[in-house]
Write a structure and sequence with these properties.
One of its GO terms (cellular component) is cell outer membrane. This is Starch-binding associating with outer membrane. The structure is a single chain. The chain has helices spanning 32-35, 39-58, 88-91, 97-119, 130-152, 174-191, 205-218, 222-233, 255-258, 299-303, 326-329, 340-343, 449-462, 466-479, 492-503, 509-516, 519-526, 545-550, and strands spanning 74-76, 274-278, 281-282, 288-289, 336-338, 369-371, 385-387, 425-427, 432-433, 444-448. With 563 residues, it is mainly alpha-helical. The strands form five sheets. Strands 1-5 form a two-stranded antiparallel sheet. The chain has a two-stranded antiparallel sheet with strand order 2-10. The protein has a two-stranded parallel sheet with strand order 3-4. Helix 6 (174-191) packs antiparallel against helix 7. The chain is globular, with a radius of gyration of 24 Å. It starts with 31 loop residues before the first helix and ends in a 13-residue tail after the last helix.
Length: 563
């Protein structure tokens, strides 16, 4: 059963009379004192943590895509628009709404988790069940601090329920925050059930250990990272998928393509690779998606090309939308466009050609060409397949080496190719979608076993064991049909590139680059769009100015480089 989130708001009736107009006389009222009592109350409160997190990073808000935009993975599809992270100085202003979004959203999760943890011991929840409830809450607290510490550096560490106004917050060091994350995740890993014993979408012992491994890497605790990731990898209930499976296994594709088809992310499909999967259910209360409005995670709209903007080689005619049916690209807007490093450089073999032995760059998973079939266009182009990587098709590139919004290589995992919900299809003959399209109608991986292997490889590299690091990397590469890497070639650059190859637009790339200290250098090297505007202090966000101004009881230090 999926873990969906239904929230009930109880609004008390207020009786007003002329002589007593401001006095409330509610027939019933819910407070923290009577809403954190029974086991059902705490389950509802935990469900709210899932909803808080899903709304924050998978709810369709523009800021959800800050994890991928303006990194070595992707850049803004439209120049000069701050919400697309098109300019670092303009985007990372201390007064910007984007800067406040991640701060307040994650502290909301922390506040809700702290209330659960603090009120649990005096509740009616049976003593033997309390550690699991606390473990789930502490997992989300650590998860929220993960975003805060990589976005902002050291932040105020709040571990108790806040029941009154407070204006004297001070920042803890980055290491102090991460060590608290580790403590929370060790507790969660010790007290949460294993993944086969839980409903789909509920956090498990394996999810806690996966995040624990990542957190340990952030402060150089490589042995702890190896131990935690090995707990996940060694679980016999988990394994990389190596054979075709799921809802569309009889269609052309490969096992990597199968991982991202609708209904294939969870164990009920036979998938043994998903660890923490964000759950959606279209048109169901609490399901987080709609087919009658553009509601839900809009990775399709952000990452897929804006087909009507594609031009022919002479820059004269629009290529007919038939060259990329909307059933494949959906309602793409081309806002989250890939860097050349992501589409090409990381896939090159020893001859500097794309190595198509790797299924992750196959036509099913990373298409990179268009068939010209515009009947109104020049005859010389009819039926010609234009590979948008080749030198003779530089019309697809701007002078800065940036793909056109109308056509560029893209990852099909952003959409549900040929499998959109039926009532979203405007024209069944052409598979044209309605204007409200753009949502990725599939559950979404937050943690996947392939990443756990790459985390352990990074930890092995940290202790100097490149042979074991290569073994883990090759477990992932061999599933994809890629050539094995030799231990002598394994370094952090290779692992970061392998994360791009395997995880692509799934990855919270900004967090990875921040954690490994590669934000500034990788963007300068690989992102031609943002290379000139990023400065070293942009590796972390500014503290929101409104939070500094409100904190009159103590000094909340601003990050260096920001006024």
């Amino acid at each position: 059963m999926k873990r969906l989130f239904i929230v009930f708001l109880i609004i008390p009736f207020v009786a007003c009379q002329e002589a007593d107009i401001l006095r409330e006389n509610p027939s019933g009222i819910y407070t923290a004192d009577n809403m954190y009592v029974t086991e059902a109350h705490f389950r509802s409160a935990l469900n709210m943590l899932y909803q808080n997190y899903r709304d924050l990073y998978y709810g369709g808000d523009d800021n959800s895509f800050d994890l991928q935009l303006a990194t070595d993975l992707s850049h803004a599809g439209q120049d000069g628009i701050v919400r697309f992270f098109s300019d670092y100085p303009a985007t990372l202003d201390p007064t910007a709404a984007k800067v406040l979004y991640h701060w307040r959203g994650n502290y909301k999760i922390i506040a809700n988790a702290n209330t659960i943890i603090e009120r649990l011991p005096v509740s009616e929840v049976p003593t033997e069940k309390q550690p699991q409830v606390e473990g789930e809450a502490r997992f989300f607290r650590a998860l929220a601090y993960r975003y805060l510490v990589y976005f902002y550096g050291g932040v105020p560490l709040i571990l108790e329920e806040t029941t009154s106004a407070k204006n004297d917050f001070v920042r803890k060091s980055k290491e102090e925050v991460i060590r608290q994350m580790i403590e929370d995740l060790q507790f969660a890993a010790a007290n949460l059930p294993s993944i086969p014993n839980l409903p789909e979408g509920q956090v498990s012992k394996e999810a806690a250990n996966h995040l624990l491994a990542e957190s340990a890497l952030a402060i150089g605790e490589n042995e702890l990272a190896i131990e935690a990731s090995s707990q996940v990898i060694g679980n016999p209930a988990l394994a990389l998928m190596t054979s075709r499976f799921g809802s569309r296994r009889d269609q052309p594709g490969d096992v990597y393509w199968d991982l991202f088809q609708r209904n294939n992310q969870n164990r009920s499909s036979g998938n043994t690779e998903g660890i923490f999967v964000i759950q959606f259910e279209p048109d169901v209360p609490g399901g987080g998606q709609s087919t009658t409005a553009r509601k839900g995670y809009q990775m399709e709209r952000w990452h897929m090309p804006n087909v009507p903007l594609a031009t022919d080689p002479d820059d004269r005619n629009l290529i007919a939308s038939g060259f990329l049916p909307t059933s494949i690209v959906g309602r793409g807007a081309g806002w989250l466009m890939p860097t050349f490093h992501f589409t090409n450089e990381i896939w090159y073999d020893e001859t500097d050609n794309i190595d198509y032995r790797d299924m992750r760059v196959s036509e099913y998973n990373f298409p990179r060409g268009v068939l010209y079939n515009n009947p109104a266009g020049p005859a010389k182009y009819q039926g010609v397949y234009f590979d948008i990587d080749t030198d003779e098709n530089q019309y697809m590139l701007s002078t800065k080496g940036i793909w056109s919004r109308g056509a560029y290589p893209y990852q099909t995992k952003a959409t549900t190719p040929g499998d959109h919900p039926s009532n979203l299809i405007l024209n069944p003959a052409t598979m044209q979608l309605r204007d409200i399209g753009g949502v990725t109608y599939a559950d979404w991986y937050d943690m996947r076993l392939a990443e756990t292997y790459l985390l352990r490889a990074e930890a092995y590299l940290g202790i100097g064991n490149t042979a074991l690091a290569a073994e883990d990397i090759n477990t992932v590469r061999n599933r994809a049909g890629a050539v094995s890497v030799d231990a002598s070639a394994v370094d952090l650059d290779f692992i970061l590139d392998e994360r791009l190859r395997e995880l692509g637009i799934e990855e919270k790339r900004r967090l990875t680059l921040s954690r490994t200290g590669r934000m500034y250098s990788n963007i300068r090297k690989y992102n031609r769009y943002n290379a000139d505007d990023i400065q070293e202090h942009h590796q972390i966000f500014p503290i929101p100015q409104s939070e500094i101004d409100a904190n009159i009881g103590a000094k909340l230090e601003q990050n260096p480089g920001y006024n």
